[in-house]
Amino acid sequence: MFCGYPITPASSILHHLSKMGDLGVSTFQAEDEIAACCAAIGASFGGAIGVTSSSGPGIALKTEAIGFGMAVELPLVIVNSQRGGPSTGLPTKTEQSDLYQAVYGRNADAPLPVIATAGPGDCFDAAIEATRVAIRHMTPVFLLTDGYIANAAGPWELPNMDDYEPILSNAINGDASNKNDPTELKRVIWNRDPASLGRPWIAPGMKGLAYRVGGLEKDIETGDISYDAANHQAMSELRAKKVAAVAEFIPDQEVEQGSTKGPLAVVGWGSTHGAIWRAVHEAREQGLDVAQIHLRWLSPLPTNLGRLLGCYDRVLLPEMNMGQCATLLRDKLGLEVIQLNKTSGQPFKVAEILNAIRENYPGAKQAAE
Amino acid sequence: MNKPLTAKDFATDQEVRWCPGCGDYAILKCVQKTLADVEADPDKTVFVSGIGCSSRFPYYMNAYGFHTIHGRAPAFATGLKLANPELDVWLVTGDGDGLSIGGNHLLHVLRRNVDMAVLLFNNEIYGLTKGQYSPTSRPGTRSPSTPSGSIDSPVSPGAFALGANARFIARGIDTDAKNLSPVLKAAREFKGAAFVEIFQNCIVYNKDRFEDFVAKKTAADTQIHCEHGKPLLFAKGEKGLKLNTATLQLEIVDVGDNAAAVEDIMVHDETNRVMAQMLLTLPMGSFPMPLGVIYRAPATSFDDAFTHHHPTQRKRTGKVADALRKGSVWKKG
């Protein structure tokens, strides 16, 4: 079930999905951003995958509810069509400046998986992967897009739907039939899959599985309210491990152009893909040994990414913000990158990236002479 | 044959953590007993709440329960009900949760007429956060945040609900299970948003706030129990409410040999919105407190309309693969 509230440039998702009823989609236009997110979580609690979308300021409003979704371990997909900010900012212009908000933006320690789509043709698959992770790991997942992608079109090779692995929720493990011991039932409800750390998706209406859950810290085994010190420590670690566990399920980072080591790699994420691809392609045609690496999962990062990026002398990172992904890589990998930041509300031009490649290519001055 | 359900069947193993003497205990007991009486199925019953003392309610009900975030419970409950319209959804909120931080969502769940029972525990105070005045506190309420008395005008929950176009509005008192239980049953049966204001005694921060009309000794004179089709009488039938056609206001009249005839007393019509408006806004103190089902005017519920207006009644009839091949599609090569 899709629950949204009108906002530029995310509204088109609500508009399109509202015409896809025959595919089993229901759409609900809520009274505000907060309600849209809460209704989507309510739907997920009820057993239907909840999806909500918005743009920067609307996402800020949803933030408390997203943290709640994480605390109660329910699946949810939040699509953020990023736009220029801060505040109301540039509603009709594009930017990639909500990465901090997606990765770090909640009260307390509240890590979430974050995936970014590289272009219009990638949205379909990215949305499927976001949903798969949300249901397998029982967590809200951020799907980042932006104004450029939201308003763009591109040729897209239609997939064969049979090629996709079905999205399955976690099995119920354990015996919950002993009515005399309510604790047994609770342990079954909170019996998380050891690999994904996702719990079984139990919804009202299911026989003999009635349970209560809320935003108060819960006992790691029974889900009962718990203010126990060691338990909160364990739950905080569980929430971190759950996001880390996603890395075991996602593919290794690949190099899109160029070799797996060398003088310079251009790393990008999101809608900069096209401009970076063209710039790297041209640089390579001009004889520069440049590689292109485009990130899809930003939280967690692919497990091989640190090792891979360590194989290049320099890493150039163009992004449409003041350096948010650069911060992320410094934080998670301890890696310093060369930043190419643009916040004009306009997408990158190929020439801008190509110039940056030339300027930052090791021995650039000598090469120019 | 299964043995009949009792209130105990709807209790959980969780220790109830309200202050001793809190009105919430009586409401909890009444809800548990009512659900047992109507043989509700715990597996199809869901209690959704926000934040506040009242909002701990779901933990104590042996049913599905969702203790959500401050003020937003109506939105969660709406999503839940739309996802599974078969569920019997109960929303538990308070005057702060429902009318302050969550006023917007309460407005919309009522005007949309989403099928659920909405129980608003009104104690005219923020209890959980230790006693600040709330949006229903009467002017002059002294509290930690208003040491010289509150200065803002309170909201009347019933009048708010009517203004929001709620189709079912009722009132009850926490410790008066005899009259509260039938109201809860009616709210559960109502197909749409059924708003129930429950006067709840916060024994610590706002003790006996409603004593004027709650006190058992004087209840006959201070309460008026609305019943559809029956004259609005109180004080053991010796007094009644009469419409003054000149002022368009209700007034109290004596009923008896040398006073007004019963025929002059207004007959309660629960479908009459104007009458509901008058009853819900009667000045406190000078009039008896109207209780029971004050307004009930059924209309299509949002969840029903949601399904019926859906192109395929929410069934999946199409295939994604086919949908993808509609529109601007061409062959490679």
Break the fold down into its secondary structure elements and pairings:
The complex is a heterodimer of chains A (369) and B (333).
Chain A: E1 2-4, H1 11-17, E2 27-29, H2 33-45, E3 50-54, H3 56-71, E4 76-82, H4 99-104, E5 114-116, H5 123-137, E6 140-146, H6 147-150, H7 182-189, E7 212-214, H8 229-246, E8 262-269, H9 273-285, E9 290-295, E10 297-299, H10 305-309, E11 312-319, H11 324-333, E12 338-341, H12 350-360, H13 364-368
Parallel strand pairs in A: 1-2, 1-3, 3-4, 4-6, 5-6, 8-9, 8-11, 11-12
Antiparallel strand pairs in A: 5-10
Helix pairs in contact in A: 2-3, 9-12
Chain B: H1 23-37, E1 45-49, E2 64-67, H2 73-83, E3 88-94, H3 95-101, H4 103-112, E4 116-122, E5 125-126, E6 132-133, H5 157-163, E7 168-173, H6 177-189, E8 193-199, H7 211-214, H8 219-222, E9 223-226, E10 233-234, E11 239-244, E12 249-254, H9 273-280, E13 289-296, H10 302-308, H11 320-324
Parallel strand pairs in B: 1-2, 1-3, 3-4, 4-8, 7-8, 9-13
Antiparallel strand pairs in B: 5-6, 7-13, 10-11, 11-12
Helix pairs in contact in B: 1-6, 2-4, 3-4
Care to describe what's here?
The complex is a heterodimer of chains A (369) and B (333). By secondary structure, chain A is an alpha/beta fold. Chain A has 13 helices and 12 strands. A 7-stranded mixed beta sheet of chain A has the order 2-1-3-4-6-5-10, with helices on both faces. Chain A has a 4-stranded parallel beta sheet with strand order 9-8-11-12, sandwiched between helices. In chain A, 36% of the residues lie in helices and 16% in strands. Chain A starts with a strand and ends with a helix. Chain B is an alpha/beta fold and 333 residues long. Chain B has a domain at 7-209 and 300-308: Thiamin diphosphate (ThDP)-binding fold, Pyr/PP domains (Rossmann fold, 3-Layer(aba) Sandwich). In chain B, 27% of the residues lie in helices and 20% in strands. Chain B has 11 helices and 13 strands. Chain B has helices at 23-37, 73-83, 95-101, 103-112, 157-163, 177-189, 211-214, 219-222, 273-280, 302-308, 320-324; strands spanning 45-49, 64-67, 88-94, 116-122, 125-126, 132-133, 168-173, 193-199, 223-226, 233-234, 239-244, 249-254, 289-296. In chain B, strand 10 and strand 11 form a beta hairpin. Chain B starts with 22 loop residues before the first helix and ends in a 9-residue tail after the last helix. The model of chain B has no long low-confidence stretch (mean pLDDT 96). At the A-B interface, helix 2, helix 3 and strand 7 of A face strand 1, strand 2, helix 2, helix 4 and helix 11 of B. Strand 7 of chain A pairs parallel with strand 2 of chain B, so a sheet runs across the interface.
